[in-house]
Structure formats: structure tokens, C-alpha cells
User: Fold this.
Amino acid sequence: MGDALTAGTEQLARALFADVVVTSSVTATDAGSAILAPRVVLVEQSRPIFTFQDQHTTIVLEWTLRDVDGHTVWMKTVRSHKQAEMGGIRDAVSNSEQLVGEVVDDLLRQSFQVLSTSAEIQKFAAEHPK
Assistant:
């Protein structure tokens, strides 16, 4: 999940913003006009006892855009929950991985939507042209 989410959030930022610097520090000093920070708030995954039961996966991702002074410009939380059949012993791991992948894909779609339509981000971008 971590690698897919990391790669996906970077691709998302590059698709929406003109200049992106990727860093592991939220207080990066080489930031342009703003710092966009995704944060995983919650990961829940159920593993049913019986193979005919559904497994559930929920991930909550919080996005925060701050100016270079650290003031919050925009914050939004996106949540994705999916369920699917657990499957037999042979299929359980691959079904679980597929379900997590679907949740991550859904989070990224939702994130693109909320980031690209945010009035606060659009206003900030207009006030801080590169």
C-alpha cells in the first residue's frame, strides 16, 4: 500500500501543480509557494474467519496545503472503503492485495477531484503565481 500511495500522490501533485519538489519533510525549506502534505490518518482491514465472508478495507487520507510560513490554506480528508469476498486459502492474499489497490485508486481519484476543484487552492494559486 505504501509504495502505491506514495507514487500515486506524487503523480497527482505533478498533474495538478506546475512545480513539485518531493521531500520527506513537511517543513521543507526548498518549497516554492506552498507545501502540499498528504497524511494517512487511518488504515483498517478486516480478515474474516470464514472464506465465504467479505473482507473490508478502509483508508483515510488527509491533505493539507500550507503556505511557506506554515499557515493552513486548505485541508480536506478523503475516505475510501471497499469490501470483497475473502476467497479460499489460495486466493485470500491476492484478493486482499487487489482490494487494497482498489481502495488506493479510489482515494487518488477522490483526491484529484477535491484538489482540482478547491476554490481555496485556486484562489491561493492566483495570488501566488510562479
